[in-house]
Amino acid sequence: MDDEPPNSWLSRLFKQNKTALLEQKLSDEAYEDYRRLLMKARPEVNGPKLTLRLSDGIVELDRGVLRVKAKNRKTAEKILRNLHHYEQPPSIWPAYGLSYSIKRSRRTIL
Fold first, then answer.
1. DSSP 3-state of 57
2. Which of 29, 14, 20, 34 is nearest to 83 (CA)?
């Protein structure tokens, strides 16, 4: 502990959690394949952009690019590696950290 700089414990205490972002360029054909694949998980659709919220991160598919955002690089790489498991039956998705994107609508009481 004596060999550490005096402010090192402060830097660890106030360390900011930065999210990891993996980005992959896609051809039009690959975009259509990923779009077909991700639609099985009920993503949020906003025009050509799909957003899939997982427990460990977010997958965004836009025309020409696939983005995976997660708390760290290791988790983002795992999500990217496991995306192809959406072709499997939904019952095994949790084994790969995948899930349905659950949308909840607000109910108003009058």
1. strand
2. 34
